[in-house]
Amino acid sequence: MLHAIIIDDEPNGIVSLELMIKKYTPEVKVVAKTVNAVEGVELIDDYRPDIVFLDINMPGLNGFEVLEKAVFRNFQLIFTTAHQEYALKAIKKNALDYLLKPVDSEELKKAIARAESNIKKPDFIQNAFDMLSDLKENEEIKISVPGKSSIDMVVANDIMYVEASSNQSVVVLKDKSKIQVNRSLKEYDQQLCSKKSSFIRLHNSFIVNVNYVTRYVPENGGFVLLQNDKSIPVSKHKKEEFLAMINFKNR
Q1: Which of 17-31, 33-47, 217-231 has the lowest mean pLDDT?
Q2: CB within 8 A of 201, min separation 6: which ones?
Q3: Dihedral of alpha carbons 164, 166, 171, 177, sign
Q4: Which residues lie across from 171 on neighbouring strands?
Q5: Residue 59's pLDDT band (cuts 50, 70, 90)
Q6: CA-to-CA distance for 137 and 93, rounded, in angstroms?
Q7: Cβ of 75: how many Cβ atoms within 10 Å?
Q8: Helices and strands of the chain, counted as H and E runs
Q9: Would you say 85 and 227 are in contact if contact means Cβ atoms under 8 Å apart?
Q10: Has residue 105 got a pLDDT over 50?
């Protein structure tokens, strides 16, 4: 019997997941649950579970902060999220599991099966802390965004996409605000796009932060949808690079 903890700020989410665990994965027993992220840290250290189901977007502490504060770390981690774009690249890159809400029973069974197979691998949880390092590095990078009357220093990971506008660019942030910038897209390509970053120049006119991609549609030449429902085409010569970034072939 594997012992599990559920940490999710939505009570209905906890109830739903626990019922599904009982029905579809009886080899797992939920020994503790909480809607409070701070209490979640204490539960991890007190119960020392085999599996932690951890919501990402929570008030107080987000899922990554809960993970970072926990002293006990020898457990299998399964993220739960309603936001497909949120840090998905980092999660996939580090071979960690996640479940999209509403949780699908088949995906739950697959996640538990992978957790069982990884239970004897001592380096598995280390991938989670490698991911935290990646996220921190990405969050700390700031770039200058010169507007009409000021120069803003913007956290790179807050940028959803950059669009070419004649010889200038429009920087669109995660809060959907836009900044007209007197710089070419090529300059931002050089600043943002690298093998370690989450940015890719999907098209001659667009640089995209893949963390905000919610859907990829290969038909009609291929395009992505972003968190703000913006549709952006994927050029043919960028398709393979993009699929590798979202770890499509490994899922």
Answers
A1: 217-231
A2: 185, 189, 193, 207, 208, 238
A3: negative
A4: 162, 179
A5: confident
A6: 15
A7: 25
A8: 8, 15
A9: yes
A10: yes
Q: What tokens does 20 get? A: 């599904």
* Residue 30 parent element (H or E): strand 28-34
Phi (first) and psi of residue 81, to 5 degrees? -155, 150
55 close to 16: Cβ distance less than 8 angstroms: no
C-alpha separations of 1 from 111, 123, 151 in Å: 16, 22, 57
Please, are residues 182 and 146 in contact by the beta-carbon 8 Å criterion? Answer: yes
CA nearest neighbour of 73 among 1, 159, 139, 131: 131
Q: Which residues of 213-251 are buried (b: 16+ CB within 10 A; e: fewer)?
A: beebeeeeebbbbbbeebebbbbeebeeebeebbeeeee
Contacts of 211 (CB under 8 A, 6+ apart): 85, 86, 87, 88, 89, 90, 157, 198
Cβ count near 195 (within 10 Å): 6
- pLDDT of 221 > 90? The answer is no
